[in-house]
Protein backbone atom coordinates (compact mmCIF):
# COMPACT_ATOMS: atom_id res chain seq x y z
CA UNK A 1 0.00 0.00 0.00
CA UNK A 2 2.84 2.42 0.86
CA UNK A 3 4.34 1.68 -2.57
CA UNK A 4 1.09 2.59 -4.33
CA UNK A 5 0.74 5.78 -2.32
CA UNK A 6 4.31 6.77 -3.14
CA UNK A 7 3.53 6.27 -6.82
CA UNK A 8 0.48 8.49 -6.48
CA UNK A 9 2.54 11.05 -4.58
CA UNK A 10 5.11 11.07 -7.37
CA UNK A 11 2.34 11.71 -9.92
CA UNK A 12 1.04 14.60 -7.80
CA UNK A 13 4.51 16.12 -7.70
CA UNK A 14 4.81 15.76 -11.48
CA UNK A 15 1.74 17.95 -12.03
CA UNK A 16 1.65 21.72 -12.02
CA UNK A 17 -0.73 22.69 -9.19
CA UNK A 18 0.53 26.26 -9.15
CA UNK A 19 -1.39 27.92 -11.99
CA UNK A 20 -4.81 27.83 -13.58
CA UNK A 21 -3.35 26.58 -16.86
CA UNK A 22 -1.37 23.86 -15.10
CA UNK A 23 -4.43 22.71 -13.18
CA UNK A 24 -6.49 22.73 -16.38
CA UNK A 25 -3.99 20.43 -18.08
CA UNK A 26 -4.52 17.56 -15.62
CA UNK A 27 -6.44 14.69 -17.20
CA UNK A 28 -6.39 12.19 -14.31
CA UNK A 29 -9.52 12.80 -12.24
CA UNK A 30 -7.93 11.41 -9.08
CA UNK A 31 -5.16 13.96 -9.39
CA UNK A 32 -7.63 16.70 -10.29
CA UNK A 33 -9.38 16.13 -6.97
CA UNK A 34 -6.23 15.86 -4.87
CA UNK A 35 -6.31 18.75 -2.42
CA UNK A 36 -3.89 21.64 -2.74
CA UNK A 37 -3.29 24.89 -0.92
CA UNK A 38 -3.81 28.36 -2.39
CA UNK A 39 -1.97 31.01 -0.35
CA UNK A 40 -4.48 33.88 -0.79
CA UNK A 41 -7.28 31.60 0.45
CA UNK A 42 -5.20 30.37 3.38
CA UNK A 43 -4.31 33.93 4.35
CA UNK A 44 -7.96 35.03 4.24
CA UNK A 45 -9.63 32.05 5.92
CA UNK A 46 -9.99 33.74 9.30
CA UNK A 47 -12.22 36.41 7.76
CA UNK A 48 -14.60 33.85 6.21
CA UNK A 49 -17.13 31.51 7.84
CA UNK A 50 -16.09 27.84 8.13
CA UNK A 51 -16.14 26.21 4.70
CA UNK A 52 -19.33 24.21 4.00
CA UNK A 53 -20.96 25.28 7.24
CA UNK A 54 -24.22 27.25 6.94
CA UNK A 55 -23.58 30.90 7.72
CA UNK A 56 -25.62 31.97 10.71
CA UNK A 57 -23.77 35.17 11.53
CA UNK A 58 -21.03 37.45 10.28
CA UNK A 59 -17.65 36.53 11.82
CA UNK A 60 -16.89 38.93 14.66
CA UNK A 61 -13.53 39.91 13.17
CA UNK A 62 -15.06 40.96 9.83
CA UNK A 63 -15.86 44.57 10.61
CA UNK A 64 -16.48 45.43 6.95
CA UNK A 65 -18.99 42.62 6.49
CA UNK A 66 -20.75 43.44 9.75
CA UNK A 67 -21.05 47.12 8.82
CA UNK A 68 -22.50 46.19 5.45
CA UNK A 69 -25.10 43.91 7.03
CA UNK A 70 -26.08 46.44 9.69
CA UNK A 71 -26.53 49.10 7.02
CA UNK A 72 -29.27 47.06 5.35
CA UNK A 73 -30.72 45.15 8.29
CA UNK A 74 -33.34 47.71 9.35
CA UNK A 75 -34.82 47.84 5.84
CA UNK A 76 -35.06 44.08 5.28
CA UNK A 77 -38.73 43.05 4.87
CA UNK A 78 -40.36 41.65 7.99
CA UNK A 79 -40.92 38.19 6.53
CA UNK A 80 -40.21 35.28 8.89
CA UNK A 81 -37.83 32.45 7.96
CA UNK A 82 -39.47 29.33 6.57
CA UNK A 83 -38.86 25.67 7.41
CA UNK A 84 -35.40 24.21 7.90
CA UNK A 85 -32.08 24.61 6.15
CA UNK A 86 -32.53 21.12 4.67
CA UNK A 87 -35.88 21.98 3.12
CA UNK A 88 -38.41 20.60 5.56
CA UNK A 89 -41.37 22.98 5.35
CA UNK A 90 -43.94 20.59 6.85
CA UNK A 91 -44.40 22.78 9.93
CA UNK A 92 -44.68 25.97 7.89
CA UNK A 93 -46.76 25.40 4.77
CA UNK A 94 -49.98 24.29 6.56
CA UNK A 95 -50.38 27.79 7.97
CA UNK A 96 -48.89 29.78 5.08
CA UNK A 97 -51.30 32.10 3.27
CA UNK A 98 -52.30 30.43 0.00
CA UNK A 99 -52.28 33.82 -1.71
CA UNK A 100 -48.47 33.59 -1.41
CA UNK A 101 -47.84 37.14 -0.09
CA UNK A 102 -44.07 36.57 0.02
CA UNK A 103 -43.73 35.43 -3.62
CA UNK A 104 -42.19 32.20 -2.36
CA UNK A 105 -40.90 30.23 -5.35
CA UNK A 106 -40.87 26.92 -3.50
CA UNK A 107 -44.58 27.30 -2.74
CA UNK A 108 -45.91 28.28 -6.15
CA UNK A 109 -42.98 29.11 -8.48
CA UNK A 110 -43.64 32.84 -8.06
CA UNK A 111 -41.17 34.96 -10.06
CA UNK A 112 -42.88 38.38 -9.86
CA UNK A 113 -42.13 39.88 -6.43
CA UNK A 114 -45.00 41.20 -4.37
CA UNK A 115 -42.70 43.67 -2.64
CA UNK A 116 -42.40 46.93 -4.56
CA UNK A 117 -38.99 47.91 -5.83
CA UNK A 118 -37.78 44.37 -6.53
CA UNK A 119 -37.04 43.24 -10.07
CA UNK A 120 -38.75 40.24 -11.58
CA UNK A 121 -36.74 37.02 -11.42
CA UNK A 122 -35.10 35.84 -14.62
CA UNK A 123 -36.70 32.50 -15.45
CA UNK A 124 -36.32 32.54 -19.24
CA UNK A 125 -34.38 34.49 -21.86
CA UNK A 126 -35.86 37.05 -24.26
CA UNK A 127 -34.23 35.76 -27.45
CA UNK A 128 -36.40 33.26 -29.39
CA UNK A 129 -35.28 29.67 -29.87
CA UNK A 130 -32.38 30.31 -27.52
CA UNK A 131 -31.19 28.27 -24.54
CA UNK A 132 -29.74 30.23 -21.61
CA UNK A 133 -26.91 27.78 -21.02
CA UNK A 134 -25.71 27.30 -17.44
CA UNK A 135 -24.65 24.93 -14.67
CA UNK A 136 -25.03 24.90 -10.89
CA UNK A 137 -22.82 23.70 -8.04
CA UNK A 138 -19.32 24.28 -9.40
CA UNK A 139 -16.50 24.54 -9.50
CA UNK A 140 -16.19 20.75 -9.52
CA UNK A 141 -12.65 19.50 -9.00
CA UNK A 142 -12.97 16.98 -11.86
CA UNK A 143 -14.44 19.36 -14.44
CA UNK A 144 -11.47 19.51 -16.83
CA UNK A 145 -12.90 17.07 -19.38
CA UNK A 146 -16.22 18.95 -19.32
CA UNK A 147 -14.62 22.37 -19.69
CA UNK A 148 -12.35 20.98 -22.41
CA UNK A 149 -15.44 19.84 -24.30
CA UNK A 150 -17.10 23.24 -23.95
CA UNK A 151 -13.91 24.90 -25.18
CA UNK A 152 -13.76 22.57 -28.16
CA UNK A 153 -17.31 23.58 -29.06
CA UNK A 154 -16.43 27.25 -28.50
CA UNK A 155 -19.32 27.20 -26.06
CA UNK A 156 -19.59 29.64 -23.16
CA UNK A 157 -21.98 29.18 -20.25
CA UNK A 158 -23.18 30.70 -16.99
CA UNK A 159 -21.62 28.97 -13.97
CA UNK A 160 -23.36 29.25 -10.60
CA UNK A 161 -20.55 28.72 -8.09
CA UNK A 162 -20.84 27.65 -4.44
CA UNK A 163 -18.58 29.78 -2.25
CA UNK A 164 -17.18 26.81 -0.34
CA UNK A 165 -16.29 25.10 -3.61
CA UNK A 166 -14.49 28.24 -4.76
CA UNK A 167 -12.42 28.21 -1.56
CA UNK A 168 -11.70 24.48 -1.95
CA UNK A 169 -10.90 24.60 -5.69
CA UNK A 170 -9.71 28.13 -6.52
CA UNK A 171 -7.76 27.24 -9.67
CA UNK A 172 -10.84 25.52 -11.06
CA UNK A 173 -12.83 28.71 -10.41
CA UNK A 174 -10.15 30.70 -12.21
CA UNK A 175 -10.47 28.45 -15.24
CA UNK A 176 -14.13 29.35 -15.65
CA UNK A 177 -13.27 33.04 -15.91
CA UNK A 178 -10.25 32.35 -18.10
CA UNK A 179 -12.38 30.30 -20.48
CA UNK A 180 -14.86 33.16 -20.83
CA UNK A 181 -17.78 31.74 -18.84
CA UNK A 182 -20.08 33.95 -16.79
CA UNK A 183 -19.83 33.47 -13.02
CA UNK A 184 -22.83 33.85 -10.68
CA UNK A 185 -23.32 33.20 -6.97
CA UNK A 186 -24.89 29.95 -5.70
CA UNK A 187 -24.52 30.64 -1.94
CA UNK A 188 -21.87 29.58 0.54
CA UNK A 189 -23.21 26.23 1.76
CA UNK A 190 -26.05 25.32 -0.66
CA UNK A 191 -28.92 25.27 1.84
CA UNK A 192 -32.54 26.42 1.52
CA UNK A 193 -32.24 30.18 1.70
CA UNK A 194 -35.67 31.09 3.08
CA UNK A 195 -34.84 29.15 6.26
CA UNK A 196 -31.94 31.45 7.17
CA UNK A 197 -32.29 34.43 9.50
CA UNK A 198 -31.44 37.77 7.92
CA UNK A 199 -27.80 37.75 8.95
CA UNK A 200 -27.30 34.19 7.76
CA UNK A 201 -28.90 34.85 4.38
CA UNK A 202 -26.70 37.92 3.99
CA UNK A 203 -23.62 35.87 4.86
CA UNK A 204 -24.42 33.08 2.42
CA UNK A 205 -24.41 35.58 -0.43
CA UNK A 206 -21.82 38.07 0.79
CA UNK A 207 -19.08 35.54 1.52
CA UNK A 208 -19.59 33.79 -1.79
CA UNK A 209 -19.14 37.15 -3.50
CA UNK A 210 -16.01 37.72 -1.41
CA UNK A 211 -14.62 34.26 -2.23
CA UNK A 212 -15.15 34.70 -5.97
CA UNK A 213 -13.54 38.14 -5.86
CA UNK A 214 -10.58 36.85 -3.83
CA UNK A 215 -9.91 33.95 -6.19
CA UNK A 216 -10.85 35.28 -9.64
CA UNK A 217 -10.75 39.05 -9.31
CA UNK A 218 -14.37 39.54 -10.42
CA UNK A 219 -17.52 40.35 -8.47
CA UNK A 220 -20.70 38.74 -9.87
CA UNK A 221 -24.00 40.57 -10.28
CA UNK A 222 -26.25 37.49 -10.44
CA UNK A 223 -27.19 34.56 -8.23
CA UNK A 224 -29.36 31.46 -8.19
CA UNK A 225 -30.98 30.16 -4.99
CA UNK A 226 -30.30 26.47 -4.31
CA UNK A 227 -33.44 24.45 -5.06
CA UNK A 228 -35.00 27.72 -6.28
CA UNK A 229 -35.89 28.55 -2.69
CA UNK A 230 -36.38 32.32 -2.59
CA UNK A 231 -38.95 34.81 -1.34
CA UNK A 232 -39.15 38.60 -1.23
CA UNK A 233 -37.04 38.82 1.94
CA UNK A 234 -34.19 36.91 0.32
CA UNK A 235 -34.63 38.77 -2.97
CA UNK A 236 -34.29 42.05 -1.09
CA UNK A 237 -31.06 40.98 0.62
CA UNK A 238 -29.68 39.79 -2.73
CA UNK A 239 -30.67 43.05 -4.42
CA UNK A 240 -28.88 45.05 -1.73
CA UNK A 241 -25.74 43.11 -2.65
CA UNK A 242 -26.21 43.94 -6.33
CA UNK A 243 -27.45 40.47 -7.31
CA UNK A 244 -30.30 39.70 -9.70
CA UNK A 245 -32.13 36.41 -9.14
CA UNK A 246 -31.97 33.76 -11.87
CA UNK A 247 -34.26 30.72 -11.82
CA UNK A 248 -35.39 28.35 -14.59
CA UNK A 249 -38.41 26.98 -16.44
CA UNK A 250 -37.23 23.46 -17.21
CA UNK A 251 -35.53 21.02 -14.85
CA UNK A 252 -33.25 18.26 -16.08
CA UNK A 253 -33.39 16.64 -12.60
CA UNK A 254 -29.81 15.51 -13.25
CA UNK A 255 -28.78 16.20 -9.63
CA UNK A 256 -31.62 14.05 -8.31
CA UNK A 257 -30.76 10.65 -9.84
CA UNK A 258 -31.24 8.00 -7.16
CA UNK A 259 -33.58 10.23 -5.16
CA UNK A 260 -37.36 10.59 -5.23
CA UNK A 261 -37.72 7.98 -7.96
CA UNK A 262 -35.55 9.89 -10.44
CA UNK A 263 -33.48 7.68 -12.75
CA UNK A 264 -31.07 8.29 -15.59
CA UNK A 265 -33.99 7.52 -17.91
CA UNK A 266 -35.93 10.35 -16.25
CA UNK A 267 -33.09 12.78 -16.94
CA UNK A 268 -32.74 11.68 -20.56
CA UNK A 269 -36.47 12.06 -21.07
CA UNK A 270 -36.24 15.63 -19.75
CA UNK A 271 -33.47 16.46 -22.22
CA UNK A 272 -35.44 14.86 -25.05
CA UNK A 273 -38.58 16.79 -24.10
CA UNK A 274 -36.71 20.10 -24.11
CA UNK A 275 -35.35 19.48 -27.60
CA UNK A 276 -38.78 18.34 -28.83
CA UNK A 277 -40.39 21.50 -27.45
CA UNK A 278 -38.08 23.61 -29.59
CA UNK A 279 -39.29 21.78 -32.70
CA UNK A 280 -42.89 22.17 -31.49
CA UNK A 281 -42.47 25.95 -31.48
CA UNK A 282 -42.78 26.49 -27.73
CA UNK A 283 -39.80 28.84 -27.72
CA UNK A 284 -40.54 30.77 -30.91
CA UNK A 285 -41.47 33.85 -28.86
CA UNK A 286 -38.83 33.69 -26.14
CA UNK A 287 -36.05 31.34 -25.13
CA UNK A 288 -35.68 29.11 -22.11
CA UNK A 289 -33.43 28.25 -19.17
CA UNK A 290 -32.97 24.63 -18.09
CA UNK A 291 -31.55 23.63 -14.71
CA UNK A 292 -28.40 21.53 -15.19
CA UNK A 293 -25.38 20.90 -12.99
CA UNK A 294 -21.61 20.72 -12.80
CA UNK A 295 -22.23 18.58 -9.73
CA UNK A 296 -20.48 15.33 -10.65
CA UNK A 297 -19.15 13.29 -13.54
CA UNK A 298 -22.60 11.94 -14.38
CA UNK A 299 -24.24 15.37 -14.70
CA UNK A 300 -21.35 16.75 -16.75
CA UNK A 301 -21.13 13.71 -19.04
CA UNK A 302 -24.89 13.75 -19.55
CA UNK A 303 -24.67 17.29 -20.86
CA UNK A 304 -21.80 16.29 -23.16
CA UNK A 305 -23.92 13.41 -24.46
CA UNK A 306 -26.90 15.69 -25.08
CA UNK A 307 -25.08 18.76 -26.33
CA UNK A 308 -25.33 17.80 -30.03
CA UNK A 309 -29.09 17.33 -29.65
CA UNK A 310 -29.53 20.71 -27.96
CA UNK A 311 -27.20 22.52 -30.36
CA UNK A 312 -29.17 21.13 -33.30
CA UNK A 313 -32.59 21.89 -31.81
CA UNK A 314 -31.93 25.46 -30.63
CA UNK A 315 -30.81 28.28 -32.85
CA UNK A 316 -28.48 29.53 -30.13
CA UNK A 317 -26.94 28.35 -26.86
CA UNK A 318 -25.54 31.32 -24.94
CA UNK A 319 -24.65 32.44 -21.42
CA UNK A 320 -27.63 34.00 -19.68
CA UNK A 321 -25.97 37.44 -19.56
CA UNK A 322 -25.48 37.35 -23.33
CA UNK A 323 -29.14 36.46 -23.88
CA UNK A 324 -30.02 39.51 -21.76
CA UNK A 325 -27.62 41.76 -23.69
CA UNK A 326 -25.90 42.35 -20.36
CA UNK A 327 -22.46 43.44 -21.50
CA UNK A 328 -21.06 44.17 -18.04
CA UNK A 329 -21.51 40.96 -16.04
CA UNK A 330 -19.35 42.01 -13.08
CA UNK A 331 -18.93 45.02 -10.85
CA UNK A 332 -15.47 45.49 -12.35
CA UNK A 333 -15.63 47.48 -15.57
CA UNK A 334 -12.53 46.02 -17.24
CA UNK A 335 -14.36 42.81 -18.21
CA UNK A 336 -17.16 42.85 -20.76
CA UNK A 337 -19.36 40.45 -22.71
CA UNK A 338 -20.52 40.87 -26.28
CA UNK A 339 -24.10 41.71 -27.12
CA UNK A 340 -26.32 38.85 -28.20
CA UNK A 341 -26.10 39.89 -31.85
CA UNK A 342 -22.32 40.12 -31.73
CA UNK A 343 -21.97 36.84 -29.86
CA UNK A 344 -24.07 34.78 -32.26
CA UNK A 345 -22.29 36.35 -35.23
CA UNK A 346 -19.06 34.86 -33.89
CA UNK A 347 -20.28 31.56 -32.47
CA UNK A 348 -22.04 28.54 -33.85
CA UNK A 349 -24.11 26.12 -31.80
CA UNK A 350 -23.52 23.28 -34.21
CA UNK A 351 -21.42 20.63 -32.47
CA UNK A 352 -17.92 19.74 -33.51
CA UNK A 353 -17.59 16.22 -34.86
CA UNK A 354 -13.89 15.75 -34.19
CA UNK A 355 -14.07 14.19 -30.76
CA UNK A 356 -15.50 14.68 -27.31
CA UNK A 357 -12.64 16.32 -25.50
CA UNK A 358 -10.38 19.27 -26.04
CA UNK A 359 -6.68 19.71 -25.83
CA UNK A 360 -6.62 19.51 -22.07
CA UNK A 361 -5.64 23.12 -21.53
CA UNK A 362 -7.46 26.34 -20.81
CA UNK A 363 -8.73 28.19 -23.84
CA UNK A 364 -7.59 31.61 -22.58
CA UNK A 365 -9.86 34.59 -22.33
CA UNK A 366 -12.26 33.35 -25.01
CA UNK A 367 -13.71 35.33 -27.90
CA UNK A 368 -16.76 36.22 -25.83
CA UNK A 369 -14.87 38.48 -23.48
CA UNK A 370 -12.59 41.46 -23.45
CA UNK A 371 -10.36 42.55 -20.62
CA UNK A 372 -8.33 40.30 -18.40
CA UNK A 373 -11.08 39.06 -16.09
CA UNK A 374 -8.64 37.02 -14.06
CA UNK A 375 -7.20 39.27 -11.39
CA UNK A 376 -6.00 36.32 -9.34
CA UNK A 377 -4.49 37.23 -6.02
CA UNK A 378 -1.36 35.15 -6.47
CA UNK A 379 0.00 31.77 -7.44
CA UNK A 380 -0.13 28.59 -5.44
CA UNK A 381 3.03 27.84 -3.57
CA UNK A 382 5.35 25.45 -5.31
CA UNK A 383 5.36 23.30 -2.19
CA UNK A 384 1.67 22.47 -2.58
CA UNK A 385 2.22 19.20 -4.40
CA UNK A 386 4.81 18.14 -1.86
CA UNK A 387 2.44 18.83 1.02
CA UNK A 388 -0.32 16.80 -0.63
CA UNK A 389 2.05 13.96 -1.43
CA UNK A 390 3.47 13.80 2.08
CA UNK A 391 -0.03 13.91 3.51
CA UNK A 392 -0.93 10.77 1.58
CA UNK A 393 2.09 8.88 2.86
CA UNK A 394 1.87 10.10 6.44
CA UNK A 395 -1.80 9.22 6.52
CA UNK A 396 -1.03 5.69 5.42
CA UNK A 397 1.70 5.36 8.05
CA UNK A 398 -0.68 6.56 10.74
CA UNK A 399 -3.16 3.89 9.71
CA UNK A 400 -0.47 1.21 9.77
CA UNK A 401 -0.81 0.47 6.04
From TrEMBL:
Residues 352-376 are annotated as: Disordered. It is a lipid-anchor; GPI-anchor. The keyword Cell wall biogenesis/degradation applies. Transmembrane segments: none annotated. Pfam families: Polysacc_deac_1. PANTHER family: CHITIN DEACETYLASE, GLYCOSYL TRANSFERASE-RELATED. Belongs to the polysaccharide deacetylase family. This is chitin deacetylase. The lineage of its organism: Eukaryota, Fungi, Dikarya, Basidiomycota, Agaricomycotina.
Amino acid sequence: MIHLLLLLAARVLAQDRTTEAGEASITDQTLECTIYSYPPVVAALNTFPPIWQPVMSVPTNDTVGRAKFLAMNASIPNIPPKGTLTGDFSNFTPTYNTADPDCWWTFHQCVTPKLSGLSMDIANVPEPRTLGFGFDDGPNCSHNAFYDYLAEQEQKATMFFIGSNVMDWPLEAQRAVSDGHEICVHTWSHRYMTAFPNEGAFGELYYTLQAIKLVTGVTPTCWRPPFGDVDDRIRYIASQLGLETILWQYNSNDWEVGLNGVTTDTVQANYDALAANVSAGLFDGAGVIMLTHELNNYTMQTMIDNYPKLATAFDHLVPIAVAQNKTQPYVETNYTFQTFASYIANHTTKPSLNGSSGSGSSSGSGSQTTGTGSGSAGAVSGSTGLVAALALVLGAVALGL
